[in-house]
Specification:
heterodimer, A: alpha+beta, 10 helices, 35% helix, B: Rna Polymerase Sigma Factor, Chain: A, 2 domains
Chain lengths: 392, 180
């Protein structure tokens, strides 16, 4: 599949390189004459602008008088919290993976509405998103089941081997299921093949599903993994050639995979010692982005499922264009540029991606950026969630 | 002012015209926008401090001028839509320009790509034009757009994927029509 993609990419790039140069029909002097006329018309009135430096100077003085006392107060609050942030850093250092681990403090204070990690250097904030699956890293899309097999937890496993294969990396990830706080890997032991829009999943001959909830989780897991590879139809079989038997569904030889699945991303965390993961709550195909955000804001949604929106935060969504979503954030409390806010932003970005938006413009955030996110411009939506690094 | 204009024109005019044309796909509008770019550039040339290259600076102004143009167009279209209550049909107003002769002379694949460019987002279109039609490096593109390298790569990747998808859909449709 990658070879086909590469060939198509090369062909397309070659064709783009053959797009002809479009020539300007107007002469250089003609253009200059037009420009000169406009420049004379648009010369500013010098006398009016003389007031600007004076006005700017007075404004700066006034702003300094207002901001300085507020900054001094914030600084004393920061100093009070610094010992708590040191705990946070210690917790992240002991984690299993630099991409998924967050501190126990963050989890403990979620309901209390406190902020404990605000003094972290921005580079220490952990991201739950992958923006490029195909470039720069050997990512493999896999899936775990949450507690009681209620939800699937997509994982994007960063392999160390450039030929990382699904079966091998999933088996490695399954060894740390307990530390991730997930119950099992529904597709463990299976091999997947993706060729263009068709795919195949081959289960080991002794593979068995475990009850009706596992059947649903298995189905969703297959859909999720193959959707990541752009596959629309999957053939299922055992390695000895028998057709696949999916518990209560009976024999299932093939399965259609819808290219899109609208979801609301919420936080999944089964205990304080486990990392925060993003869990997709599946929505029906007619759901609107407003409904998705409402679900994100609501508490609960299953065992160990939490809202990614901190207390006192509300969000409104509007479509800027077919590609871009505008998210206005309103806060009644003090939202700071910390890990909790970043997790909220990333859950919103991932939710927007599932609705087909390519970028999100945030408004109303009381800070200009977190980590590499610059909120003064639209942020690209991710391709996958929950990156984890493992030793294969 | 004239020597600065002459120098910029000789070095960058063709690329500048090309970039804006592929963005807006209308010769008259391109001529107007190119004019606007030169006015802004010449107006602020004394403030150019060499932090970026002259080319990067010129193209970033060109991109801002083009985006402003799109914003004005969107506002105009919205007003029209509200007035006539045409629902989403306003989108169809975008790509009804005749093919420029340079494109009309090319094969069907090139003409299709030319149409598909219109369906990309403004950001994707900017990246694809700068990277593949203007042959700029990822670093130059990032400097012009004021983005990180990673954002350029992501946007480029998504733009290419969409172009490929539409081309594949077109091929499938062709096969279905042949089968009939």
């Amino acid at each position: 599949m990658k070879q086909n993609d590469h060939k198509n990419d090369t062909d397309l790039q070659r064709q783009l390189g053959q797009m002809p140069a479009i020539h300007d029909h107007q002469a250089k002097d003609e253009l200059y004459d037009k420009i000169s006329v406009h420049m004379k018309e648009s010369k500013p009135d010098k006398k009016k602008s003389d007031f600007l430096p004076v006005f700017a100077f007075i404004t700066v003085l006034l702003l300094a008088a207002i901001i300085t006392p507020a900054m001094m107060m914030n600084r004393s609050n920061d100093e009070l919290n610094s010992s708590e942030s040191q705990n946070y850093e210690a917790a992240t250092e002991s984690g299993i993976s630099e991409n998924t681990e967050e501190s126990a403090e963050l989890f403990e204070t979620q309901d209390e509405g406190k902020v404990t990690e605000q003094n972290l250097p921005v580079s220490d904030f952990e991201s739950h998103l992958v923006f490029e699956m195909d470039e720069g890293a050997n990512y493999v899309a896999s899936v775990a089941a949450g507690s009681n097999a209620e939800h699937i937890i997509p994982l994007t496993i960063k392999g160390t081997d450039s030929n990382a294969v699904f079966r091998k990396v999933t088996a490695s990830a399954a060894k740390i299921a307990e530390r991730l706080g997930v119950s099992f890997f529904p597709l463990e032991g299976a091999e997947i093949i993706a060729e263009g829009e068709t795919g195949e999943i081959i289960f080991s001959k002794d593979f068995q599903t475990q009850g009706s909830s596992s059947d649903v989780i298995l189905q969703r897991s297959i859909e999720h993994v193959f959707r990541q590879y752009g596959v629309s139809e999957v053939k299922l079989s055992y390695e000895d050639g028998r057709p696949f038997e999916m518990g209560n569904y009976g024999i299932v030889e093939s399965m259609k995979v819808s290219p899109d699945q609208k979801v609301s991303y919420k936080i999944y965390r089964s205990s304080e010692s486990n990392p925060i993961l993003l869990a997709p709550i599946e929505l029906n195909e007619n759901a609107s982005i407003d409904e998705a955000v409402e679900i994100m804001a609501s508490p609960g949604g299953g065992e160990y499922i939490y809202s990614p929106l901190p207390d006192g935060v509300e969000v409104d969504v509007n479509e800027n264009s077919g590609h871009e979503l505008l998210i206005r954030v309103k806060t009644t409390g003090q939202l700071q540029a910390n890990q909790k806010a970043m997790t909220m932003i990333e859950a919103l970005l991932a939710t927007a991606a599932s609705f087909g938006y390519e970028q999100v413009q945030f408004e109303g955030l009381p800070f200009a950026g977190i980590r590499t996110y610059d909120f003064t411009e639209p942020i690209a939506t991710p391709e996958a969630v929950n990156p984890i690094s493992i030793e294969e | 002012m004239r020597p600065v204009y002459e120098s910029l024109y000789e070095k960058y005019h063709q690329d500048l015209f090309n970039f804006i044309f592929y963005m807006v796909k209308n010769r008259e509008q391109t001529e107007d926008l190119v004019q606007e770019v030169y006015i802004k550039v010449l107006d602020s040339y004394t403030q150019f401090n060499g932090d970026s290259s002259e080319k990067t600076w010129l193209f970033s102004i060109a991109r801002h001028v083009t985006i402003d143009f799109f914003r004005k167009q969107t506002r105009k279209r919205k007003r029209l839509l509200e007035f006539f209550d045409w629902d989403n049909k306003g989108e169809q107003l975008i790509d009804n320009q005749p093919l420029p002769e340079e494109i009309a002379e090319k094969n069907e694949d090139i003409q299709l790509i030319y149409h598909y460019l219109e369906k990309l987002s403004v950001d994707q279109k900017s990246v694809i034009i700068l990277r593949y039609i203007q042959s700029m490096s990822i670093q130059e593109t990032a400097d012009i757009l004021g983005w990180t390298l990673s954002k350029v790569k992501t946007t480029q990747h998504r733009g290419l994927k969409l172009l490929q998808k539409w081309a594949a859909e077109h091929r499938e449709e062709g096969k279905r029509n042949e089968a009939k």
